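Troubleshooting entry. Yesterday's outputs looked truncated, so today I'm pasting the complete records for two proteins to confirm everything comes through intact. If either block looks cut off, that's the bug. Protein one:
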Amino acid sequence: MLKSKASFANRIFALVLALTLGMASFLLWSVGTHAEDDVPAYSGSPSVALNNNVPGFTDKEITTSSFEKYGELDQLGRCTAATACIGQELMPTEERQSIVAVKPTGWKQNKYPGVVDSKPPYLFNRCHLIGFQLTGENANEKNLITGTRYMNVEGMLPYENEVADYVSSTGNHVMYRVTPIFTGNNLLCDGVQIEAYSVEDKGKEISFNVFCYNVQPGIEINYADGSNELAPDAGKIADSNSFIITGGDSGNGSVRSSAGSDDPGIPAGTTYVVNKNSGKFHYPSCDSVNDMKEKNKEYSTKTRDELISEGKTPCKRCNP
C-alpha cells in the first residue's frame, strides 16, 4: 500500500514537472512574437508597416502623463517590450554615458570593412529599444538589444527622430512601444516592432506601427546565437578583398570622447558635421554623427550663423 502511494505520488510529481517545463518552453517560444506571423520576409526595405500602420494602444493605455517602463528580461536573458509616454520631461538633460558594460544576448561582434557603413565598421550596435534621445536611458540592460548597424540607423533611427522632433517642437506627448521579436529560443531578435501615437492631437501628427528588420546586407547571421559571416553575394556591396573579420566589443553607441582632428574620421578644422539629407548640423562629437551613413556626412568649417543663413538647422540633441 505504501509502495502504491509512493508510486502514485511520483507519477503526479512527474506530471506536474512536465506541465511546468512545457509551459516554460511555451513562454520562451511566445515572448515577444505576437507580430511574427504578420511580418513579411525582408525584401530590401529596412522596415515595413504592420496592421495597416495602425498602433495597438488601447484607450486605457493612452495618457498624457509621462512614464517609462522596461519589461523584465525573460528566462534566456532577452529583452522584452519597453513602453513609454514620451514627453519633454523624460528627454535627456545630460550627456550620454558609456553602455559598453552591457552584453545583450546574441552579442558576437565583428568588423566588415566596406560592407558595414560606419567607422569602425562594426556589424552590431547596442540598440536602445527606446532611444536615448527620447528617455535618456544609458546602460539599462532591459533597454538594450543586439542589433545590426543597418537596423539601428536605417530602420529605427528615422522613427525615433520623428518622435523626438515632434515632442521637442510641440511639448506634446507620444505613446511609444518597442517590442523585440524573437523566433523560438533564438538569442538574436529578428527585428523590433515600433508603435507610436501622438496623444494630444489623437494621432494626427504621429501614428505608426512598423517592423524594423535586424539584418545587414552582405552579411549572413545565425539568429540562434548571433554568429555571423560574409555572405556569398557580398561582393555586390563591397570588394571582398577588403574583408577583415576581428572580434571586438565596440559598436556601443556611447559618446565619442573627442572631435575634430583627434578623431581620425573627421578632418582637422571641422566645426560642424552636416547631414546632407536632413539639413541638420551637429558638433563633431554628437552621437547623431556616428548614427549617420558616411555618404550623408558633410564636414564644414563654417560658423553656426553661416550654416543657419544657408537654411541648415541646429541639432536638438547636441544644441550647437
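Protein two, checking that the full record survives here as well:
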Amino acid sequence: TTANRSQAEMNEIRRQWVLAFRENGITTMEQVAAGMRVARRQERPFLPSPGQFVAWCREGSGALGVSVDDIMGEYWRWRKLVFRYPTSEQFPWRDKNPLYYHVCLELRRRGMEGQLSEKELIRAAGDILHEWEKRVLAGKPIPPVRRALAAPSRDRGPTPAEMLMAKYKQRKDAGLI
C-alpha cells in the first residue's frame, strides 16, 4: 500500500512510472485512459507493476485505432474462414485494413514456430501491434496487401527425397538391401 510510504519512496515510485511510460511510448492521456479501463476490469486489488500497466495501455486502442481484441477477433475469423479463398490476400479483411493482413500473418508464423498457447498468442499480438504502431508513428505507411508469387507452373522434376526413394527401391528390387 502507499499509505505507509515516505515522500522519498513515493517520488521514486512516480519516477519509475514516468520512466516506464517514456521508454514504452505511452505519451497521451488516451493511452493512459485505455490502461485504466483495463485496470478497472481486473479482479486483483493490488497496484500493477509499471510494465503490466504499460501492456494494458497498449491493449486499448492505440495510434492505429485497433486493439489487441480486434486483432485476435480477426485472427480467429481468418483462421476459420481462409480455406474458402485461394490465398490469404483475397480474404475479406475487416474494414479492408491491410494492418490485419500483416499482423495476422506474422501472428500465425510466430504461433506455429513457437507452438504458442492462446495466452502467448495474445501477448504476441500485443507485441506485433506495438511494433506496427511505432512504425506508423515514425512516419512509415502500412503497406497494401500484395499478391503472393504464384507457384511454379511447370514440373521441376523429382525432389532430392524422391530421388533417394527411387534409388532405395531400385536397390531393394535388385536384392541389394
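Both blocks look complete. Sanity check on protein two: DSSP finds seven helices and no strands in the chain.
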